[in-house]
Amino acid sequence: MWRLKIANEDGISENKYLYSTNNFVGRQIWEYHADAGTPEDRAAVEAARLNFYNHRFQVKPSSDLLWRMQFLKEKNFKQRIGGIKIEDNERISYEKATITLKRAVHFVSALQASDGHWPAENTGILFFLPPLVMCLYITGHLNTIFSDEHRKEMLQQRWWMGITHRGTQHHILGLFDWVGCNPMPPEFWILPPFLHIHPALDDMNPMPQESHQLEVRHISSSYQSVAASN
């Protein structure tokens, strides 16, 4: 069962290369514990996953359900402030606004982590993770850094990686077999846009220049990471 670990809750740093000057305050990391939780907890997690899957086209964000369920149970949270319903064209009174605010604060306070911050999903930074994963693959440390459960989750979510545009030409790094690519050398995509043979000028392949620049940046960052590692 996946558990969200806050800061250095157990007082043990499992990674000798990982250090902090503030005891990892603000750090949040998902850890998998095979024996964690009760059968009811595991059933609730699977029910939440199934509900998310069944409504994935209507509600795409995860809503942070897993860590919310974990925190609310750990703090024995119960919403004791009744909800207020405002009818159409009804005037919002000071009393109703105050009750609603107290109800929201009561709930949000229960979601605060032990070190003071509020955990949340921020997929924006995931945009920079693929080059790091590539470096782990190239250096042979992928299975060392990622546990079996981490790799399992990555494989389960790999369907979204089937992107057709050429910004995902991982064969340039030797991460994908060339037999699955168009017969075109990768250097062709790095040509300057003022050349008449630039691929972005092809009507059959209207790929924006931003994608070419983005691909070059991805490749460059990956090479720099590999070169800087030992």
UniProtKB/TrEMBL annotation:
What sections of the sequence does the record tag as coiled-coil?
none
| The entry's keywords | Isomerase
Q: Does the keyword Transcription regulation apply?
A: no
GO CC annotation = lipid droplet
Q: GO biological process: any one? A: triterpenoid biosynthetic process
Q: Which GO terms fall under molecular function for this chain's record?
A: beta-amyrin synthase activity
Gene3D superfamilies on file: 1.50.10.20
Annotated protein name in UniProt: Uncharacterized protein
- Recorded source organism is Cannabis sativa
